[in-house]
Predict the 3D structure of the following.
Amino acid sequence: MTVQPDIHSAASSEARQRRMAGALHDAGLHHGDRVALLTSGTTATVDLVLAASRSGIVPVPLDPRLTARERAVVLDQVEPTLVVDDPAVLDELARGPERGLDPYPRCRPMHFTSGTTGRPKGVWSGWLSPEHAEAAALEERALWGFSADDLNIAVSPLYHSAPLRFAIGTLLAGGSVVVVPFEPTAVARAFRTLAPTTMFCVPAHLQRLFALEAESGERLETTSFRLVAHAGAPCPTPVRTRAHERFGTDVVWEFYGSTEGQFTACSAHEWQERPGSLGRARPGRVVWTDTEDQIWCAVPPWSHFEYWRDPDKTRSAWTDSAHGPSFTVGDLGRVQDGHVFLDARRTDLVITGGVNVYPAEVEDVLGAVPGVRDVAVFGRPDDQWGQRVCAAWVGEATEDDLRAVATEQLAPPKRPKEYERLAELPRTATGKVRRTELT
């Protein structure tokens, strides 16, 4: 028997948020404390994120698949007052006494990203004034048109920033959310029976839905959608054009951004007029490039961020410009007539199925395997996932040795799918690995 997923309304969410906020207060959490969430994504996850951020507590959503080692690295930095890693705890929190909430989240959830160092860093928005909190929420609503008539279907893991942002924006606008963990048949059934109006997804999701269409011979029911936004990885042109055909060119959008912040939004119409474009800068932002073609984005005050307890990394990400304070994540590109084009993602990043994997973090783990003298992790093109994580190593260790340690110490998306033993790694004169020669 198929169980129908529950539709979570803004009203029921608000009531649960108030009880969760009361439970957090009774548990001794105070303004500025952190609560770490390591549970599978449900509507209760969204409620706890909102309950915390609307009551002065910092929510830290994390992948529940993190290994003990990965989890310890993050939690040591966060020093959470509360760790929620059991769905039963969410249920218990939802039975707390009601407590008042701010109208809008006073901070963004703290998501973690690794980068070149291999050590995950929290992206922290700081505390927003009531005026800036309202502005942050309303600009999302204005861009994506969130309303009380919306039913957002969340198919991506809610510890990622984009799907969580869409769910939060929908609830704050009075709409409803349904969580359907991605499995093509289940998602196609939800399209047919629930009539969702909005969805965030990654290209791999679209690809698998279209593969289901081809295998089953049944056309997806897409007429209820007014917005389908995709991001997280480059979208192959055949998948993109199929999405335009299936959902409609008035429905499909792409955006370019990162955990740190959003740069652009691009409608299907705009992409068709300028293939390869990532669109124009989002309202209130200016995207520009420096003399080395590095992409920067000037943002309003409520979109500023810092790396948690890492002032050096924060300083390297920001600059003052004629456009105002601007940040970069190291991508290279160009801006032509206001339209942004991405030429190269930073080389320290592999995007597989919309998940960011940082080679340095994987290299730290594999480099500690006895018998590994040198190791490099990189991405290779993959028809289904965009890229797949691969590793090349020098030394006497066997592939089985490396796979065993990766399974023990790395979450599934970070584990290399291919291994290759080399006599030596290609390096520059200054010792940097030439990853492009390994792909």
The chain has a mean pLDDT of 93. Residues 268 and 391 are 36 Å apart (CA to CA). The longest strand covers residues 372-382.
